[in-house]
Structure formats: C-alpha cells, structure tokens
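Continued from yesterday's entry.
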Amino acid sequence: MFTLEPFTPTDCDRLIGWVPDARFLLQWAGPAYTFPLTREQLARTLAHTQQHPPAHLMFKLCETPGGRVLGHIELMGLNPVERRAHIGRVLIDPAARGRGLGTELMTLLIRHAFGPLGLETLTLSVFSFNTPALACYERLGFVTVEKLPPRTFENETWDLLRMQLTKPTY
C-alpha cells in the first residue's frame, strides 16, 4: 500500500541525491533551481507550503505509511477560488523506476486534489522527449492543451507541452 505524505526538511538530502546533473535538474524542476540542488533551495520552496492558505504543497510517495520513500511530487499555484492547481516536480527514486510508481504517485495526488482539496482542474508541463511521463499522464486522462515556448539547455532546444485534467473527465 502506497501513501502520499507531506515532504519535510528531513527529506531534502534524499531528493538532492536523485538529481544527478544540471540537465536533469532543468528537466525535472524547470529554471526554479540551480545545480547543484541544495537544502537551502528546497527550504525556500518548503516555506511556501507554510502559508495560510498554502499556495504550494510538497509530497513524498511512501511504500507504506511512514515507510521507504519512493517518489516526490508538488502541487503549485493552488487556487481555491478557481479550483485549480499545477502539478510539478514529479520524480521517482532512480532505483525504483520502471515499476509503475509514477502512475501510483500521480493517482494519489489526483485523488487528493479532486477529493479533499476540492479542485476541479489540474495542469502540468512536460518536455515532449519525456515519453515515459507523457504516456503516464495520457493513461491518467491528461490531454495536451498547449505547446509552450521551447526551453534551451546548452545547445539543445526542448519542446514543452501543457497538459490538463479536469475532475469531470477523470
């Protein structure tokens, strides 16, 4: 049984260990962080989760309640008036990939967002070359709604897609 639990400062070192280089960091987190990822950078993000009401939530995927941590996910731009938020920074422990945990993590977050949080619309952004993530999101019902301006890393150009899922279509 997997659970979605709040991300805490004690989880920072584990998450940092899952980010091997600058290219991966940009793919995972966008331009919000710089490599190497540090506790201080994560602490700034965690501070946003302490606002009332919070506009940002950080979670970890645990194998059992309080058990081994297998993933990370964030809900950003929480807007209770418009009943929407943006999913971001989805990451599975490199040693646990290929087991469907991304789908498990996303499912738990979607249920939390559409259930207790009372949201109606979820969006996310994904690079078009990230085919495992795209397949996961499409299986869960997300549809591409917009092609965003491309991002660049060194001499590469990455196409960025915005996807959306609404409660009635889930």
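--- second protein ---
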Amino acid sequence: NYDFIFNVIKQSGYDGWVGCEYKPLTTTEAGLSWINQYR
C-alpha cells in the first residue's frame, strides 16, 4: 500500500531519498509506471 507508506514518510518529516525495489513482469517502463503518481 504505497499511499499509506509514502504518507507516513511524509508526515514523519523525512526529507531524503526513498528507494524502491521492483520486479517487473514485462518491461522496466511498465514495472515503474506506478511511480508517476508520486513524482
């Protein structure tokens, strides 16, 4: 649940980088498309 996780990080005041691991089922672009809503 990325919405919950990113909201907790934001509310904590953390101002650094967040790394995410992924294993795309098809292409890298398809595997990372979810992150566009958080940019």
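The mean pLDDT is 87. The CA atoms of residues 15 and 39 lie 14 Å apart. Will compare against the first tomorrow.
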